[in-house]
Specification:
With 547 residues, the protein is mainly alpha-helical. It contains 21 helices and no strands. The N terminus and C terminus are likely disordered.
């Protein structure tokens, strides 16, 4: 009976009202997902090192990932969630469910056809994407790509489920899906590879996509979802047509963004073996703060921004945007400083095992430092683009994305011959910063005010605290001792823990004396949760509070 009640409570997840609370839920689940992701990378690095196998594995992700981002991410972030949320807010639930059935039907049919077509022509396609691969490396890349084409189909269905949960502000189960996705990949790397070789990596990705979908379905079904496969009727639905209209510019924007990674894959395939793996390892590490704070806060605030924009509440829209902007910077700027100062220790602790040797480590942590320089901009991009989408403006991010990609391509061509994989990282960082700045400029033009003075003041305070924290972390490295200390895991871990601990203490002290609002908001939130936990424990044990 108790298990049944717990299960019902879990499935009947209540909407999360607070942006901060929603972001906390997404962040905590994101922490678990990122930890699994780092464990995944450590397993892959230890088993294969930065070489041909992982180059093929990451290259095989490129086109399936492109399909998923074009077909699903574009529809969800720019179109489906705002339209679905508007229907729910207007208490038109039946129309909302017809919309979800129509969009899901189109996704299943179109993604299915495209995936089958690309499976047939995978060989020709990968010769375009990885022109530097030959022989067995190219054959492995093609095989892995064909298997992975199952994942966008499954993730497409799961993406619609996630959009429904976000619209209802049911963030808990939505946030668990990436955990199960990484779990599937880990199962593939640990168990499938043992019996099937590198093909097991691709099967693990497919298993992860399946788990990503299955974990969300019960909550979506409980929310009232009912599905009917339609196609011609879906195109006649005005709400579906509205989604498609909004989706086109967003899809093109995503296409521009994905071209960025495709360009990296194309050029990396012409570099030394392991270059693509090195870039992906470094990108995965610096993407942890991006996912935990940039993406989670943006997802959490998006329904609120959409609702405020629909109600024409401009002042509240700007206030929510500025608050989220500053919250993202409060977490991301100090973390980027730590990644730069402690780059060698971070990479060695996370990836340094098995076949991942010291040469791999050097290339990865130098690439990580270059990528981390633009982490603040990368983390703000999800919020800025969603602000435009909430205003139902999907064209501006598209045009800015094209301009940013032109900058990226030009820099890659200029830098790659002399600097190799480091040139790719510099181009990526510069184009990310350019993208962020242009989005800020044009958002100000559209809404008239984006809280520039408040953002500037908060940024200066956070930067001051972060630089102090970086100096403290550097002192911590010297205090423990850096010469000859990278030979054992425990020695490197000790450096990392002591240095980052001193950095966090220094950041907290400066944030306190500068009266940074986000610092006090965080401490109040943590204090409330601790006392609430103690109160709950006291009630469970029969203790009375205050005695």
């Amino acid at each position: 009976m108790i298990q049944k009640l717990v299960k019902n409570k879990f499935l009947n997840e209540k909407p999360t009202q607070s942006i901060a609370a929603a972001a906390l839920i997404i962040s905590l689940a994101g922490v678990a997902s990122r930890l699994l992701g780092l464990l995944r990378d450590r397993i892959l690095a230890g088993q294969f090192g930065a070489g041909d196998t992982l180059d093929a594995y990451y290259a095989a992700f490129r086109i399936p990932d492109l399909i998923y981002n074009l077909m699903i991410v574009g529809a969800l972030s720019a179109a489906f969630i705002p339209v679905f949320t508007e229907l729910i807010a207007e208490e038109k639930e039946e129309e909302a469910w017809k919309l979800s059935s129509g969009v899901l039907s189109l996704q299943i049919i179109i993604t299915g056809i495209i995936s089958i077509f690309l499976v047939i022509f995978a060989s020709q396609l990968m010769h375009l994407v990885t022109p530097g691969y030959v022989g067995e490396k190219m054959q492995l890349t093609v095989t892995l790509t064909r298997i992975m084409f199952l994942s966008p189909f499954l993730l497409g269905i799961s993406g619609i489920f996630g959009g429904i949960l976000v619209s209802f502000k049911k963030f808990l189960i939505y946030s668990l899906a990436p955990i199960f996705y990484n779990l599937g990949i880990i199962i593939g790397a640990v168990f499938f590879v043992r019996y099937l070789g590198p093909i097991g990596l691709a099967l693990g990705v497919v298993l992860g996509a399946l788990l990503h979908m299955l974990v969300q379905f019960p909550s979506v079904k409980f929310s009232g979802f009912h599905f009917k496969l339609v196609f011609s009727q879906a195109l006649k639905n005005p709400n579906v047509r509205k989604v498609l209209k909004l989706m086109v510019p967003r899809t093109l924007t995503i296409a521009v963004s994905q071209i960025n990674f495709t360009i990296i894959t194309i050029f990396a395939s012409t570099l030394a073996a392991g270059s693509l793996a090195v870039f992906n390892f470094a990108n995965n590490i610096q993407s942890a703060p991006l996912g935990l704070f940039g993406v989670s806060f943006s997802i959490a605030v998006f329904p609120t921004l959409s609702a405020l924009a629909a109600k024409k509440q401009k002042a509240d829209f700007i206030a929510a945007f500025v608050k989220t902007f500053n919250q993202i910077l409060f977490f991301v700027i100090p973390l980027s400083v730590f990644l730069i100062v402690l780059r060698a220790q971070t990479v060695r602790v996370l990836l340094g095992s098995g076949k991942f040797n010291w040469d791999n480590t050097i290339l990865t942590f130098q690439t990580l430092a270059l990528l981390s320089l633009s982490l603040f901009a990368q983390s703000l991009l999800p919020l800025l683009t969603r602000a435009f989408y909430a205003l139902q403006n999907t064209k501006t991010p598209l045009y800015i994305g094209i301009a940013s990609e032109a900058i990226n391509l030009a820099l890659v061509v200029i830098l790659i011959k002399s600097f190799g994989v480091f040139g790719l990282a510099v181009a990526f960082s510069v184009s990310s910063v350019a993208n962020m700045l242009l989005l800020m400029i044009f958002l100000k033009r559209q809404v008239g005010n984006v809280g520039g003075k408040e953002i500037f003041r908060a940024t200066l305070q956070i930067v001051a605290a972060s630089l102090t924290a970086g100096a403290a972390a550097q002192f911590g490295k010297w205090l423990v001792g850096t010469q000859g200390e990278l030979d054992t895991f425990l020695a490197v871990l000790e450096q990392l823990v002591v240095a980052s601990g001193l950095g966090i203490i220094a950041f907290s002290i400066v944030a306190y004396y500068l009266r940074i609002p986000e610092f006090f908001q965080l401490t109040r939130s943590l204090t409330r949760k601790v006392f609430r936990m103690k109160k709950t424990i006291g009630e469970d044990t029969g203790e009375v509070s205050g005695i």
